[in-house]
Structures are given as C-alpha cells and as structure tokens.
Automatic annotation (TrEMBL):
Pfam families: HGTP_anticodon, tRNA-synt_2b, tRNA_edit. It catalyses: tRNA(Pro) + L-proline + ATP = L-prolyl-tRNA(Pro) + AMP + diphosphate. The keyword Cytoplasm applies. SUPFAM superfamilies: Class II aaRS ABD-related, Class II aaRS and biotin synthetases, YbaK/ProRS associated domain. Homodimer. The keyword Iron-sulfur does not apply. This is Proline--tRNA ligase. The gene is proS. HAMAP family: Pro_tRNA_synth_type1. Gene3D superfamilies: Anticodon-binding domain, Bira Bifunctional Protein, Domain 2, YbaK/aminoacyl-tRNA synthetase-associated domain. One of its GO terms (molecular function) is proline-tRNA ligase activity.
Length: 562
C-alpha cells in the first residue's frame, strides 16, 4: 500500500489525556482516533493490527472446536429481564428505546442472546457439548473510561460460550478454552499469567483471568515466587476452588467463628481494609446475614453490601459513603435496622454465584431468591487483613509477591445460572429433562492490542512483534523526486508484493527526517530505505527493534526479509 494514499496522520506531541504508552503511541502513530470518551475509530494501520490479533484468536478458537457466529449487538430488554440482569447489571449497560418505546440494550456481553438461541434449537444431549464464539464490538458505559483502548466504552471482544450436559463436560470445555487462551496470548508475544479470579458481573463460579504483567494494569495479582499459584488480589487467599455445582452447599455455621463486634469495630475493620485494598466480612443482624466485600481500586473504593437473605445490594463509590453508611447505620440496607453491635460470623473470601453491583444511587435495589449456600459457597476461611509480600503462598509453595496486571481474558464456569433462569433444557440419554450447564469465555481483543504496545515500545515508538505488525516492511524512498530513487523504490515495491510480503511504501514527498520519525513511530519490523546509493542498486535495511542495519543489493532483499 502507498502511504501517500493512506488515511494516517502522526502527531509530535502526546494527546493531553493520554497517560500511558499504548494510548500515547497508538494515537500519535495514527492507529486510532478518539471519537468520544472511551470511543475510538481504528484508522487503516490500527485496523490491520486489530485484524492480526483477531486472526490469532480466531485460529485458536477454531482449533478448540468452537464455531464462529455473529450475534446482534442490539438486544431486547426482555432477554435481560429473563435472566434477571436487566435490573442487576447497573449503569454499565447502555440502554435505549426504539420509536415504539420498546427497551433495548447494546450488548455488553451475550449470555442472554446465546442462551435463547441454544434453548430454541438444542433439545437433546446428542447435540452437546456445543461451543460457539463471535468477535464483535461490545458496549459498556464504564464509570471511568481511560487509558485509550484499555478501558473503552465501545471495544472489540471475542466472546465464546459452551453448553454442556454436566459439570464434567463443562470442565473439559473450560480446559480447552484455557489452553486456547494460553496459546493466543503466547502468540501475541505477551508476558502473562493465568490467575484465580473473582466472578464480577457474570454470575460465575470457577474462573480464571489472563493477566498481562504491566505497571499500568488496574488489577493487583498475588503470586507465588516458586509455584504456579497466582490470584487476583480480590481472591488471593482463596485456597480451594469449591467445586461448581448443585453439590452439598457449604455450611456457613461450620466455618463461622462468631464474634461480637461493635459497629465501630466493623467500621474500623472496613476502613482499615480500604487502605489495604481488600476485605470481606460477614455478620449477622436480626437473623440475617450481611456480607460486606470491599474492593481496592487505586482510584475508587467500592464497597458491596449484601444482605444475603433479602440480597439488598449497594455498591458505594467512595470511602465517605462507607463512613456515612457506618455512621448512620444500615438504613440503606432495607430490612436491617441499625444495630449497636453485630455477630461477626467470619471474614473470608466467598465465591458469589450471583454477584450484583449497583450504583450508589440505586441503593436498596432488591434481588430476589438469593440464598447463602445455594448461591455462593464459602471457600475457606482466610484472614485477608494481613496478606502482604513475603507471606507463605496459600498453596504451600513459596512466598507471595505482588504484581500489576491488565486483564486481557477471562474464562468462567457459569454453571446453570442462565440456563435455569431462561429455561434452557435438554433431554438426557434417559429421556429426562435436564438444565444445561454453561461456560463463558471473553478476550478483550482491542485491549490485548493495547497491552501488546505496553510491552513493545521504545523512546521512538512502537516495536511490534512481527506477527502483529501492520506490515512486515516499511519501504522508504527518501527523495522520490530523484528519478533513480523513485525507480528503484517502485521496483522493490513490486518485488516485495509479488513475494507476498506485506509492504507499506512511503512514497510521499516529505523530508527524510519526517519519514524516519514516522517509520519509527509506526514500528514496522523492517525498514528499507532507498537513498543516495540507489544508482548502484544498494539500499539500507534496518531492523526496528534491534536497530541492526546493513546495506544490501536489490537482488538480496527478498531473501533477506522473507
Ligand atoms: P474489567 O475488570 O477490566 O472491567 P471485566 O472483568 O468487566 O473487565 P469481562 O466481563 O470479563 O470484563 O469481559 C471479558 C474481557 O473483555 C475482559 O477480560 C477484558 O479483556 C475485556 N474488556 C472488558 N471491559 C473492557 C473495556 N471497557 N474496554 C476494553 N476491553 C474490555
Ligand atoms: Mg468491567
Ligand atoms: Mg475484571
Ligand atoms: Mg472479567
């Protein structure tokens, strides 16, 4: 392709709001442009790299046995009402009305749509397991869109879903996806770790996140210095993954260590935890269990309060909210009246099946039919207060270290949550009706792209791994006004294309300095410069990453770059 005819415009200065490398470089190099907060267009260079990442994802999904499809981004509210998430997903879900005042959402994720499709077409165990995926723009009205492609409000995701007849079968699908994810991120050249994760909005059970190690990551990972143990700090102390299931629910009373605490002590505990980033506590008031989970975010401290019997859930945005809540008692918890003291049952990590977050202004929202034991499992008592670097790893091997990570992928065992709510059943080999078991698996394709730039850059620009780069060769003709330069460059352009090499040809009438600077910014792995020695048929070949360069003869070029 000829650069003179490409929609691209490089910038000398970093955009004012771009705090991190990937955001700065992708904008400066003309790969992306912001259209609104958290909303980006991919210009031709950006689209090419996005397609490279997509293609890797696609190949690995196909290899895992998943079939590609494309679901509508526009989703009727009815489907989300069936699953229950119309009311629980909160402000992140972009909602709109059509001309007949019917409500819709722009797909933040597609569990509802795929479950409705599968329930209408799969009736027998003979058709299971089933794995499908799509690569599509997702919409989430993030509270704080930032860091360019890392946290957008419209972004490209690969989402996959498995439908299984049993938990054993789900485990097999999950393993396949887990392997596919490891392959994808390895092929993207990323330094990553798979970590035990929280289940977020998805109502997940067993779940892992794939984290790219990076200082700019918003998550904190606790990992063992000598073993494979790694967990999102939200879940760090959890040792045993409780098996996903309809099995014997954990008995709360069994793990409980009842302990009277004054409200002041509870408030202190939580206030303290905010400083450290994580805490959960469960107590009993008026025969109702209340679970409080604090989450650390380096900017926001979210607190979730759950009255598990009535499942009132409040998500408070700030530390002040916490204190005012603690100060004024539990008025916003609905049925629970402000007590002087509470019976603390335990502070531990739990694995919520139904994990609901609402904005503070939606406090008091009711989520019905949630029961402890059935809807969440106590994993293991662990004191989250004092986890710190150097502590013994929960798996008994080595010691805890912390690192920051960017969540690029997430695999979940969903269990029967959606299938039950949406009535996705099949007949088993005995002719009995059973509820399907599901898994869901997401990769942030555009986020992965930005994560690659975070790990591949230098002071002059991006340094793409060859398989991700938009082109393999950047061909520069330094002074196209000189006939012999233009001629040689034109010839090389033809030869490279004929050899099947992706080449971007800078045929612009610009100063050499401008061309070199743009080329470094773009990060194409090999630069071929046609300059002064064109009359001898000699050009300069330079590797972007290592800086190695050599003068080569025209007839050596193809062999050299292939
Ligand atoms: P996060 O914790 O960063 O908000 P998430 O847990 O909400 O992400 P999932 O629901 O697990 O995200 O979605 C699957 C994948 O989609 C994530 O692992 C991530 O790579 C990507 N993703 C999620 N939100 C965004 C976003 N706002 N911008 C870009 N990619 C995103
Ligand atoms: Mg999110
Ligand atoms: Mg997450
Ligand atoms: Mg996630």
């Amino acid at each position: 392709m000829k650069q003179s005819q490409m929609l691209v415009h490089t910038l000398k200065e970093n955009p004012a709001d771009a705090e991190i490398k990937s955001h700065q470089l992708l904008v400066r190099a003309g790969y992306i442009r912001q259209i609104a907060s958290g909303v980006y267009s991919f210009l031709p260079l950006g689209k090419r790299v996005l397609r490279k990442v997509e293609e890797i994802v696609r190949e690995e999904m196909d290899k895992a046995g998943a079939h590609e499809m494309l679901m509508s981004a526009l989703q009727p509210a009815e489907l989300w009402q069936e699953s229950g998430r119309w009311n629980t997903y909160g402000a992140e879900l972009m909602r709109l009305r059509d001309r007949h005042e019917r409500e819709f959402a722009l797909g933040a994720t597609h569990e509802e749509v795929i479950t409705s499709l599968v329930r209408d077409s799969i009736k027998s165990y003979k058709r299971l397991p089933l794995m499908v995926y799509q690569i599509q723009n997702k919409f989430r009205d993030e509270k704080r869109p930032r860091f360019g492609l890392l946290r957008g409000r419209e972004f490209l995701m690969k989402d996959a879903y498995s439908f299984n007849e049993s938990f054993e079968s789900l485990n097999e699908s999950y393993e396949k996806m887990f392997t596919a994810y490891s392959n994808v991120f390895t092929r993207c050249g990323l330094d990553f770790r798979a970590v035990i994760a929280d289940s977020g909005q998805m109502g997940g059970k067993d779940t892992h996140e794939f984290m790219v190690l990076s200082e700019v990551g918003e998550d904190v990972i606790a990992y063992s210095d000598t073993s494979d143990y790694a967990a999102n700090v939200e879940m760090a102390p959890v040792i045993n993954q409780s098996s996903p299931s309809d099995q014997e629910p954990a008995n709360l009373e069994k793990v409980a260590t009842p302990d009277q605490k004054t409200m002041q002590e509870v408030a202190d505990f939580l206030g303290h935890s905010l400083a450290e980033g994580l805490k959960s506590i469960m107590f009993k008031v008026d025969d109702q269990f209340v679970l409080v989970v604090t989450r650390g975010d380096h900017e926001v401290n979210d607190i979730k309060l759950k009255n598990l019997y009535d499942a009132d859930i409040v998500d408070l945005a700030t530390e002040e909210d916490t204190h005012s809540l603690m100060g004024t008692g539990f008025g916003s918890l609905g049925p629970v009246n402000a007590p002087d003291s509470v019976d603390v049952i335990a502070d531990f990590a739990v694995e919520p099946l139904v994990n609901v977050t609402c904005g503070a202004n939606e406090a008091g929202f009711h989520y019905t039919n949630v029961n402890p034991g059935r809807d969440f499992h106590v994993k293991e008592y662990a004191d989250l207060r004092f986890i710190k670097e150097g502590d013994p790893s929960p798996d008994g091997n080595g010691h805890i270290k912390f690192a920051r990570g960017i969540e690029v992928g997430h695999v979940f065992k969903l269990g029967r949550f959606y299938a039950e709510n949406m009535n996705a059943t099949f007949l088993d080999d005995q002719g009995k009706s059973q509820t399907m078991v599901m898994g869901s698996y997401g990769i942030g394709v555009s986020r992965t792209l930005a994560a690659i730039v975070e790990q591949y850059n230098d002071e002059r620009g991006i340094t793409w791994p060859a398989n991700i780069a938009p082109y393999q060769v950047h061909l520069l003709s330094l002074n196209p006004k000189k006939e012999e330069q233009k001629e040689l460059a034109d010839q090389l352009y033809e030869q490279l294309q004929a050899a099947g090499i992706e080449v971007l040809y800078d045929d612009r009438k610009e100063r050499a300095g401008v061309k070199f600077a743009d080329s470094d910014l773009f990060g194409i792995p090999i630069r071929i410069t046609v300059g002064k020695r064109a009359s001898e048929g000699v050009v300069e070949v330079k590797e972007r990453t290592s800086g190695e360069q050599a003068d080569l003869n025209q007839n050596e070029i193809i062999h050299h770059v292939q």
